[in-house]
Design goal:
Domain TonB-dependent receptor plug: 39-140
Number of helices: 5
Largest sheet: 22 strands, antiparallel, barrel
Main location: membrane
Number of domains: 1
Family: Belongs to the TonB-dependent receptor family.
Strand content: over 45%
Organism: Rufibacter radiotolerans
CATH class: Mainly Beta
CATH topology: Maltoporin, Chain A
Membrane topology: Multi-pass membrane protein
Length: 631
Amino acid sequence: MAAQALSLPSAMAQAVSPDTVQLQTITISGNRYSKYAAGSRTQTLDSLLLQRQPGITLAEVLQQRSPLYLKSYGNGMTATVAFRGTTASHTAVLWNGFNIALPTLGLSDFALLPPSANATVHLQHGPSGALHGSGSLGGAVVLENPASFRPLRQVQVQQEAGSFGHRRTAAQGAFSNGRLALSSSFTRTAADNDFRFRNTAVFGQPYETQQNAAFSQTSLAQDLHYKINQDHRVSVRGWYVKTDRQIQPSMGSANTHARQHDENLRLMGEWQGQVARGTTTARVAYFQDRLDFQDDGVLSLSKVHTYQSQLEHERALRPNLLLQVGAEGQLFQANMKEYGGAIQEQRFSVYSWLRYDPLPQLQLSLNLRQAWVKGFNPPLTPTLGANYHIWQTPQHTLTAKANVSRSYRVPTLNDRFWRPGGNPNLQPENGWGYEAGLAHQYERKAVTGKTEATVYRLRVQDWIQWQPATAGYSEPVNLSQVLGHGAELDSRWHYQASEKTALSAGAAYAYTISQQKLPDARAHFINRQLFYVPKHKVAGWAEARFQTWWLSMDAAFTDRRFSDNDNNNWLAAYALANASLGKAFTWRTMEAQLMAHVQNLTNTTYQTMAFRAMPSRSFRLSLSLKWATHP
């Protein structure tokens, strides 16, 4: 995206009146945010993973295709992702424009997010408060279900089975006649998780069988799009996920038979039309998030209702100048005994995004957002970014990038109202991020590739962290400052030898330093790496396709991670590898795909969280049947 010649999108041209003199424009492609993200590192994940493995969660996708560090409490257990040395609560997750993080926890469990097969997954690295609002101090994950009215009829079913009682059933369908578009997807995944593991918390490190770790998950998604006419469209989307999990106990601890029930319902409606020489979009959404936890001694029930609305207007002021203005409102309603009763909170924000291309080789973006939350004073969050093509030939494009951005995070409901420990006097986190980089694109005959290198610096004031209190429980406090810096390198290549033969490969590397000042034994303040932040993370993948066969592999190396603030204890570095072999069979409009998958190919013993066992080598076999026509 950043390395291409960018200007105003095609929608902008439609917004210009017929008697306007048109200047030369260049088309932008990408999600609704990318055209206003000049200077930022953005990427779109490979959609083949979602199509070949319906029901795969975002946790699994990011583990295989990004250098982000995934913290998991076990296979199918809570999994969180963080950008650039921040925490899970500093990663914004948006679904078709709406933030879906739990208001109680302020984060998203990526094990509870199985995107539908027609979804696209975009990543934006670095602070992006002006674009994505509260919580995006480290980065953002954007899920979108775009409307497509291309005539299509398609039905697909898949059955998968594997080690440790793994089983998955998936079905999806799509229909479009040029005016009405429907898509549905259903998945059910379950596993016994009775794998063998080495108990490193017990003398002699014996092998044991994992107990109390079974889970089941059901997901249902439905999209409906209707084109009223050429200028107006309405969309309705729904996404329901129900997950029942036994909570895997940590090594060396007693099995308290903990269980967790999650139920997430997300509904939204959208209208988009050509109004006032531009494009106006109105969205409304209702979310219901339920989280119930129970073990031998604790029962905690949580239900949160979220109401959200957005109104925005995008207009081309000139052929090379695009402006979008908008407003957003949120209402949270939570009722938990740990809060002492019902809690309600309202949030509002207004934003303005500007894209200006003064020269064909130069793209600029300037974005602003101001939020209002009762009892808090979130800062104004500006973003300024630029792309400049310093070298461009028919085969090569070299682009210099730079971006400076401010972001914020309002304390969560748990941070303020949890009893005991909640602190209503917390200050909102706010941070500045700076980044610069080079992006190179190559295209010649059968070979295409993109390589991008980025360096960044991040500073966060009033970082919120839960710490032990003198009364014997934990409480959140504002740390004075957390500083981070690092570098990222990403390279992806594709070689199309013939119509039926291709080779794709990619690699990504992240160097991350994220530190806070803590006193040592002599009361001298020194910089300490934040816990569970690996200094080095590398991910690589490759796929070869020959006629109806394909072979793919992915591998990742994760450096050691400290498991405490004092940097006295750590988890060892580890490397993981996975492999898949598949073949397609076609007959007229029918297609069958048979795929074998091996996870943890080298049978590595590892932990992403201290004393949380992860599965050994495992196998999966799946069969998919698809029928499709394009009238």
